[in-house]
Amino acid sequence: MKRMLSGIKPSGQLTLGNYIGALKEFVKYQDEYEMYVFIANLHTLTVYQDPEILRKNLRDTVLLYLACGLDPKKTKIFMQSDIMEQAQLGFILSCNIYLGELNRMTQYKDKLSKGEEGMSSGFYVYPTLMAADILAYQPDYVPVGDDQKQHVELTRDVAVRFNNRYGETFKVPEPLIPKQGARIMSLSDPSKKMSKSDASDKGCIYLLDDPKAARKKVMSAVTDSINEINYDPKNQPGVANLLTIHSALSGTSIDALVEQFKGQGYGTLKKAVADEVEKLLVQLQTSYKELLDQNILTEVLAQGKASAQGIAHATLVEVQTKVGIEI
Ligand code: ATP
Ligand code: LTN
Known about the structure:
Elements: E1 3-8, H1 16-29, E2 34-39, H2 41-44, H3 51-67, E3 75-79, H4 84-94, H5 99-103, H6 106-113, H7 121-135, E4 141-143, H8 149-166, E5 174-176, H9 211-219, H10 237-250, H11 254-261, H12 266-294, H13 297-323
Parallel strand pairs: 1-2, 2-3, 4-5
Helix pairs in contact: 3-12, 4-7, 4-13, 7-8, 9-12, 10-12
The chain binds adenosine-5'-triphosphate and L-tryptophanamide.
């Protein structure tokens, strides 16, 4: 069975973008692959987090993983910081990644170009930890949304470099980007990714949003003045985003949706998308509440840790031996 691994950063409440671009894919894959999914809690610290809010986000993230359909009997769910091998491997990998490579990371360049102040050095080196998160588990595939592709490519580069320098050690993993829905856009500004760390939450649907409030966000989504329903992300990004969300949630192809809504107003499309979103949130939140009452978090994470740690440990020991720091 091929192995798959991915992580989500619990720096805020999970969003519809996370669901469509990542979680829904993980659930789809868990029957066919040996699946590892972790909560990237160390990564959240690259930007200051209020400790109490972070703790709540961690719990909600695990519960939402489960509510979305990840089954702990099939998927190993664990907390990044529980596996200390990952951070140790991260340091060794950072010594095999050049400054020039980190300087080219889009997320870093974006912050730099916006003149963001107080960027932490942790944020700058975070792709090196992400490489370790992945390579520690020797996965075949890494399912991620579009924005993470560059980091997986860096991971591949360092794996190849390490293998060339020290002998075959790491499997070189492939990113797996969904064909559709890899970048759900903000409802209020469809030129930007729907992001949980957005200052304004008007464009972002959180999985724990009140379903009626989420409907309103969809109904006030920014579209255009063309007034024709086409799938044209370049010229009609708002409409294309609505079609993508509908298609991801309903399973109807975008072509079929364009046909179905041809000649109708944007209000009709928005209402149909709002129905899909409301249905999803009601269903997720019902299971979230049931899971909350079951008190199963500690057990799920302990089981995940037990399955994950042995693999990361074996990789770290091999790496430490190969680089010569063990006698
Ligand atoms: P932030 O919103 O703070 O930038 P993020 O949501 O991108 O964070 P993660 O939560 O770690 O960061 O992302 C988890 C997964 O969800 C990644 O695979 C990422 O590519 C995917 N993802 C995040 N936002 C979207 C989106 N708008 N559309 C599709 N996939 C997304
Ligand atoms: N960097 C990712 C989250 C993340 C991840 C990973 C994803 C951390 N480690 C390993 C896949 C594999 C993010 O910020 N979205």
